[in-house]
Fold this sequence. Notes:
The complex is a heterodimer.
Chain A: E1 2-7, H1 8-19, E2 23-26, H2 33-44, E3 51-54, H3 58-70, E4 75-80, H4 81-86, H5 88-96, E5 102-107, H6 121-124, E6 132-135, H7 139-153, E7 162-167, E8 175-180, H8 183-190, H9 217-246, E9 254-257, E10 264-268, H10 272-285, E11 290-295, E12 297-299, H11 303-309, E13 315-320, H12 330-339, E14 347-351, H13 361-377, E15 384-386
Parallel strand pairs in A: 2-3, 2-4, 4-5, 5-7, 6-7, 10-11, 10-13, 13-14, 14-15
Antiparallel strand pairs in A: 1-8, 6-12, 9-11
Chain B: H1 3-13, H2 30-43, E1 51-55, E2 70-73, H3 79-89, E3 94-100, H4 101-107, H5 109-118, E4 123-128, H6 163-169, E5 174-179, H7 183-195, E6 200-205, H8 221-231, E7 232-234, H9 240-243, E8 251-258, H10 265-277
Parallel strand pairs in B: 1-2, 1-3, 3-4, 4-6, 5-6, 7-8
Antiparallel strand pairs in B: 5-8
Helix pairs in contact in B: 1-2, 2-7, 4-5
Amino acid sequence: MAKMILTGNESAAWGARLSKPKVVAAYPITPQTSIIEKIAEFIANGEMDARYIRVESEHSAMAACIAAENTGVRTFTATSAHGLTLMHEMLIWASGARLPIVMSVVNRAMAPPWSVWTDQLDSVAQRDTGWMQIYSENNQEVLDSIIMAYRVGEKHNILLPTMIMEDAFILSHTAEAVDVPEQKLVDDFVGEFEPAFKLDPQDPGGFGSLIMPEGPYMEFRYKMALAMDEARKEIRKVTEEFAEVFGRKYPGLVEEYRTEDADAIMVVMGTIASTAKDVIDALREKGKKVGLARIRYFRPFPYEELREIVKKADMLGIVDRSYTFGYGAALYTETKGALYGHTDKPIKNYVVGLGGRDITPDVLVKIFDNMLKIAKDGVVDREIEWVGLHGDERWS
Amino acid sequence: MSMMEDIRLKVESLLRTERLPHVWCSGCGIGITLNAFLRAVVRANIDPNQLAVVSGIGCTGRAAGYVNVDSFHTTHGRAIPFAVGLKFARPDMHVVVFSGDGDLFAIGGNHFVNAARRNHDILVIAVNNFIYGMTGGQHGPTTPTGAFTTTTPYGNPDRPFNIPHLAISLGAPYAARWTTHHLMQLQNSIYTALHRKGFRVIEVISQCPTVYGRRNSMRDPLTMMEYFKKNSIIKHDATFEEMELTYNGKIVVGVFRDVQGIPTYEERYEDIIRRAKK
């Protein structure tokens, strides 16, 4: 194992390299580009035995990965924001075709107005595509999650693609020490890709045919639903095995931080969790009992874990770095949906950091204070609150 | 006030000076192209209220943000469909697409092809710097075969687009190519094209010393401009082969097609409405 100083994007490139995809098809987009540049360099230098396709758009990138994966080889790509949303059609195809493609996504705000800074709407908007979704907290997790994603996704009772998110710039362009595992260990852990079905001239088959309403369309979708449920179990298992081999323990679908005896627990995805952990330590020293549940997997959604977590506190504060217009941000509505009938404790939605607006410890302290007040009163002051809007004195 | 000063002030009035300085690197060719465009607009005496500029994404895409007329900074590759919609809603306006090669010919390639085929009445100024500049120098659809980029570290195996030939093959009535070294010819060409109708395409070969030149033995802007100067040949009746761009090879420039009287899509559409109403 070698320690390297890597940005989030370099960590993603290393994660891909170690997992040995045979085809990488990609298109540049800020702030993802340095992932595919690094991979292009690895391949050109002969350090990765793969074909690199320089396509003309992200839609084509995913189409090329789909076709390559259909021939029975492992594939990888990376994108961000508008690139990801342009891929939307192909994302649904990839999962529907049961192709365990792995993709890095750098979370970036959607235009207009143009912004290249972090915001999770791009990937949250892909919730319904049938992809598994991992939100990373640090660069190590970016790298390790790619390795685990191939391992989980390629299991024949799962066969679903995975996207691994990193917050723009906060991870993508920030370097930190990362353990780069030995190739041999990764080879053994991930194994060779054994497709359940593939394009094969010796055994020809039709892919993507038309199906009538009385045909098994619904059954195909039901199998995908079952596969997502299988994935939920497999993720827990694979993270355990990963810990045994590589010495780093990931918490399955949800990470809990100081949730024991907490009065209020914050639920969040991505790098805000890191800041929150520091804030929690500081608040705990002052006797304020707060904790954190970091959602690693937004898909499959960890409803069972959340039903246990909610028992530990008097309220949950759901912090979203995106908003679903119409009613509540996605993590909030998903959490509430998962907890309906399992709790009547107050749950509040905090909408923060859109378009890359900085989430400082001060902001989180104010949110925690508000959460603790709700925990004490037992009443939610506002169901959904946008934090730190210009001119809002509540948060200044 | 001298005439030069008068033109300068008029050009300046077409810029959102409060947004300056611009994002382009020193020595970039996009500013030269924008200047040529604005001077042509001044010369053509076009009412700024009758002009709209549409850009896609990338370095050239930032132009829409700097021009003091109605402008759209659209999504990647979609400058032409935005422009088509704009022209259809306001056929009285001059609609100019000012965007880059990566935007217009890769992710937006299909729009270029179909808008040219239909002969929409828009002017496309396509700045070709051989590369995706904004994202840091990746291979794109116009990167010459053999050129070095961050995603082709040992040379590009792809063939680049032959932009004027592509436009001509689709029936575009006006197709020209100049380099940023041909400042007056470029300005004249834009001036002429502003007076023509239909799908007009002007390719501007432009220097990107920052991420293209430095990987291809043209480290500074001057070297790139000298390359344009030394290697350019003006040939208005160039053949397909002559129009092809090769790595560090000759650049054939000129007005390759300038035909008048081909009905535009908008005219044909109006004609159908007229006939239907009879």
